[in-house]
Amino acid sequence: MTILDGKKTSADLKLEIAESVKQLKLQGKKTPHLAAILVGNDGASMTYVGAKVKACELVGFNSTLIDLPEETTEDRLLQEIESLNNNDDVDGFIIQLPLPKHIDEQKVLMAVNPDKDVDGFHPTNVGKMTLDLPTFLPATPFGIMELLERYNVETSGKHVVVIGRSHIVGRPMSILMSQKRKAGNATVTVAHSRTKNLKELTLQADIIVAALGIAEFLTGDMVKQDAVIIDVGITRVEDASKKRGYRLAGDVHFESVSKKASFITPVPGGVGPMTIAMLLKNTLLACKNKG
Predict the structure, then answer these.
(1) Of 48, 86, 154, 277, which residue is least crowded by CB atoms under 10 Å?
(2) How does DSSP assign the chain, residue by residue?
(3) What tens digit of pLDDT does each residue of 56-113 get?
(4) Which GO terms describe its biological process (predicted)?
């Protein structure tokens, strides 16, 4: 059983990106600049944004954090987005989700200039991805594809079961895995909360992508021998034995599933670190696209 180590792979990627930034600077070209908008004080969101800013520093990017209070109006947020759209120094920016309830998430994401949408959520970029045109891929699926490629996981002709149909992970993952690409050419089944015969499907799967947000949902009796397991979930589970009072669990019951898997991503340290690395890769691409 091989661990798909997102921590190590993302560190390798950051070194490669840092080298590219160094070359850009030596050529007298622009330093990539990533901005992030954070609305409110959701603990997990603050942690994620902090990690993104730190990663920017590490690879030599410029970064800007726009920190807005919880009660920020939708109009005010749209003004901030417009300002970033028009700021030539900013190559790409992200709006940290989830947003407070009174703000229309879809309206906000639609307002982002597709050329600066390094999260890959804008319909223009989703459409391009679907048509297999060059574009920004959503960071988490992009990170998973990168892991599969770098570990030479065979995907061609394999049966992939994606559990979860979110626009952020499940849906794009199903599209990318079926395309003609190195980590692709697979036959894909998308399963979700209404799927009747889920265990029957997962037992047939050569590769399982678990992205449904339920802690330790996928258990050893649901996977066949030598399956490849990608665990996208991360949930805080109460655990009195831990100093923090909780532990982090994925959507996969690691102990039972890892005994059967040929490759598996751990939680934490699997898909999570890759997401930030791919966000940086998209920002570098956005900067280079501007010439």
Answers:
(1) 86
(2) -EE--HHHHHHHHHHHHHHHHHHHHHTTPPPPEEEEEEES--HHHHHHHHHHHHHHHHHT-EEEEEEE-TT--HHHHHHHHHHHHT-TT--EEEEPSSPPTTS-HHHHHHTS-GGGBTT--SHHHHHHHHTT-S-PPPHHHHHHHHHHHHTT---TT-EEEEE---TTTHHHHHHHHHSSSTT---EEEEE-TT-S-HHHHHHH-SEEEE-S--TT-B-GGGS-TT-EEEE---EEEE-TTSTTSEEEE-SB-HHHHTTT-SEE--SSSSHHHHHHHHHHHHHHHHHHHT-
(3) 999 999 999 999 999 999 999 999 999 999 999 999 999 998 899 999 999 999 999 9
(4) L-histidine biosynthetic process; methionine biosynthetic process; purine nucleotide biosynthetic process; tetrahydrofolate interconversion
Q: Per the annotation, where are the binding residues for NADP(+)?
A: 164-166, 234
- Asked if 148 and 245 sit in the same domain, the reply is yes
**Total structural domains in the chain?**
2
Catalytic residue ranges: 52, 96, 119
Please state whether 99 falls in left (phi above 0), alpha (psi between -120 and 50) or beta. beta
Q: How many residues are recorded in the chain?
A: 291
Annotated binding site: 164-166, 234
Host domain of residue 246: 139-272
Residue 286 lies in a domain: no
